[in-house]
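queue> pop job 88
queue> type: inverse folding (structure -> sequence)
queue> payload:
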């Protein structure tokens, strides 16, 4: 039953607030206040979406919403397995990862380190699988080769996190800058 004198938690308050404001645009300042002023309010909103399936919309879902605006149009809950990754989210993740496999460091079209002998084609992967409680939240998504199989951990060539982040930067440079770096490395390592 009720917890003695404590007021309801932030998540409960937010849930109630969303349920009372169907069809109205809510702002982040408003939600922050509803959630007892906790800085965790955004996380609680994500939990309502990802763990409870509430269809809370943001500017990522609707072009008509500005960043920091929230809208719920229906109280129908979505099944919480996977809400599916939108094309927009897919592109966002690929861009954030510099179109680079986050396991082997290959760029799209290069030789894959996850599946030898194959060219790297990128897919969006759940770092924590949905079946193990992972969500479609952007923090749980990353770009990896289609051939990457986390169950078999089939990676032949392991690439360090440092190398991957440098390659992400490198792929974003214009061709002449890449050539400059290539010349530098060639000079340094010769024809090894
Ligand atoms: Zn890979």
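queue> result:
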């Amino acid at each position: 039953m009720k917890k003695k004198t404590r007021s309801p938690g932030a998540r409960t308050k937010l849930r109630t607030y969303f349920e009372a404001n169907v069809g109205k645009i809510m702002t982040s300042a408003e939600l922050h206040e509803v959630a007892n002023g906790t800085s965790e309010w955004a996380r609680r909103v994500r939990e309502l979406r990802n763990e409870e399936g509430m269809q809370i919309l943001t500017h990522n879902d609707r072009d008509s919403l500005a960043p920091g605006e929230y809208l719920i149009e229906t109280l129908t809950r979505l099944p919480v397995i996977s809400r599916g990754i939108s094309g927009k989210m897919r592109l966002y993740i690929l861009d954030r990862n510099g179109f680079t496999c986050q396991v082997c460091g290959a760029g799209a079209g290069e030789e894959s380190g996850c599946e030898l002998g194959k060219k790297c084609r990128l897919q969006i992967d759940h770092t924590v699988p949905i079946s193990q409680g992972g969500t479609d939240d952007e923090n749980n998504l990353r770009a990896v080769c289609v051939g990457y199989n986390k169950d078999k951990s089939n990676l032949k060539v392991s690439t360090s996190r440092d190398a991957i982040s440098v390659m992400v930067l490198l792929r974003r440079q214009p061709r002449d800058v890449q050539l400059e770096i290539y010349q530098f490395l060639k000079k340094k390592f010769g024809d090894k």
